[in-house]
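[step 3/7] fold_predict: job queued, chain A
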Amino acid sequence: MILSLLFFGGVMFLWFNVRPRVIRAVFADVTPTPGPTAEEPEDAVLPIALSAYDGNITLVADGTPMPTPTERPTPTPTPTPVPSKNPENGDTLVEGDTQPIVLDIAIRLMELEYLDFEQPTQDYTEGTADAIRAFQLRNGLEVSGACDPATYEKLFDEDALHYALVRGASGEAVALVKERLVELGYLPEDDTTDIYGEGTEEAIRLFRSRNRLPEDVIVDNETFEALFEEDSVGYFFEVGDKNPEILHFQEKLFEQGYLVNRPDGVFGKMTQVAVRRFQEENGLVADGNLTRPTMTLLDSGEGEPFAFRNGTEGEDVQHLQSRLVRLNYLTQKQATGYYGDKTEAAMRAFQKRNGLEETGEADPETISLLHSSAAAANPTPKPTRTPKPTPKPTKTPKPTAKPTKTPKPTKTPKPTVDPTEKPEDPGTEPVTTPAPDETATPKATKTPKPTKTPKPTKTPKPAATPAPTPDDSGDTGSGGSTIDYGEGIEAFIKIAESKLGCKYVSGGKGPDKFDCSGFVYWCLKQAGVKQSYMTSRGWRTCKKYQRITSTGDLKRGDVLVFSGTGSGKGHVGIYLGGGKMIDASSSAGKVRITDNVLTGKYWKEHFLMAYHIWG
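[step 4/7] structure written:
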């Protein structure tokens, strides 16, 4: 018992005296063991010391060198594996999931036209969930937005139904369709709900019938595109109709400079062209129909006035040129349908001769006079004939040369030396007669001097060359005039960037919900560009701007157009430069910026064209 107590006391004595050294050995860097301090003389060093090495505390004899501890590498934490979810295995994908199988789901939704054609990802976004909801509604499944096994199986079934709005649907896309049906006269103006009901079904049935689409009551992609096409048929007037109401709106179009022929009450080809141009200039859907918004704006007098000028093109331009041809200001070959330098010069000449301001533009006053019986034609001066008898004086001396055989008689008659001085010589009379004719024709061309009375209108210096140029070639366009809005391009970009994060909604046209084409339309409109609404497919045939077909020619602010598959939807966005695009993405479910337009395989393979909105 006494021995046990002594042993325990000795251990405690060693612990309390050696403990500070143990702590230093554990936490200090590996350095030579320091010598004794003043407070701890050398003879006080214990013969036994504790050493910390490799995590173990051992007793070693004094003076034994301490081994250098090996530094352990900090272990890298193993990432927790994301559980694999696959509807084929009975799992359900929901918004927020990131799985490889989502990529296949997105591609399939694009093929069935529930998503725009754009680069898919593995993220199950809000946009993917919305597309799944539309698919479930269309295919008679429980509408949840989650991709459960039943939805997944139906999605990849060969009988899966393509995107379409059907009775019972609601939301922005339905509201857009109904708004368009109201414009075209198929629905009453007070039908402003976003619910696809019985009345909408009947309106769609009638629209499809009048636009030669298969009989049905759904809005599939073909019907949706037809609603916004330039040649869509409304439930108002058609080409060939005659009506006092048509005359009324023709007069409005004529007053504002859009109609190029006199109002007659007949909805003819030129009236349709005038309506389309009015709609285009005022941001309406340019379909050529006298829609409700078109008639309302015409009646209000608040529409933008118009004048045909250099850079304008179309059938109406060719009609104006044909009038200039009839009045001898242009040649037939110059009536190309493009209002270029030669047409402008011809219009100046017409205005000058008819006492109008010499602007070179075809405003309503000029167009009215062009069709008037009082319009003064351009009297083309007849080419001055070169008098044929002029070479004859060289022949007259021949008879005088023959009598040289009798030199004496020839010297005596002095008149033979200068035949022109013989008034009685009948051979010289035809020589003198051309003189009056030569002066007569030019005087006829100088007679219209009284037309110079409107001298104050001579301010435009280009009027110095009023007559058409001898070149018989016509004006040619470049597939659409480029509009210069000055600093508008940077405003366009800032407007687009201000909408980053806004929700993607099929049919959305702003200000806080967009689809891809609605986003481009809204941004252009806010930047001051008079552009009618077009779907992504409608952009493929746009002729208003300069078209670019190579990505190497892209400029900041260009509108980018990408293809779909077959008749499927394409995609449009705005180029920011440096390979970046801002767009309303259906797969991302929002307005975002992507930076691989020039490098991403998907975008390169699906690029169709771009448009320079600004030069």
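[step 5/7] annotate
Residues 244-300 form a domain with the Muramoyl-pentapeptide Carboxypeptidase; domain 1 fold (CATH 1.10.101.10).
The chain has 20 helices and twelve strands.
exit 0
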